């Protein structure tokens, strides 16, 4: 089949998210200017540069009690910082629970039973048990096509690695099993890893 998104797809559910998969999940933690913590998962997330290391995530949609965006983006606009917590399969239920639409200012860490730790370089909480956490300074927020589509870019200025995930000098994803987003309500877990050598290596 072929369809133009502007014309609709005539399927029961939008296939777009099922096409662009798997997607890593950025579990974004923020703190507002009043010191209230927030955490929410975003699957439009990725690393975008090595030097300096940079990441991005996109927020799509509006909360009724936030002006034109969602809590995470609103908090970053206030403070200029955020933390990306890497989601493991073992944390899938807490991650999902933290995605609930709750009143602005609600602490999703407490709501979902997530253990907190303080970041080292920024004024923000992080997931204490996460396999890795990236402390970020926001570099720019770009509004893209659509009423409430914002992309946040951040420079990684601090990196936490859980000790059990570092094996022989390498960060080993098989030690924690990354959780990835598929389409619809589907997820997958990364359990198989193989190496391919590039032609010019």
Automatic annotation (TrEMBL):
Domain of life: Bacteria
Originating organism: Sulfitobacter guttiformis
Alphabetical list of SUPFAM superfamilies matching this protein: FMN-binding split barrel (SSF50475)
MF term (GO), any: FMN binding
Any one Pfam family match given in the protein's UniProt record, by short name: Flavin_Reduct
Domain Flavin reductase like as annotated: residue spans: 18-173
SMART domains: Flavin_Reduct
UniProt-recorded name of the protein: Flavin reductase (DIM6/NTAB) family NADH-FMN oxidoreductase RutF
Gene3D superfamilies (UniProt xref): Electron Transport, Fmn-binding Protein, Chain A
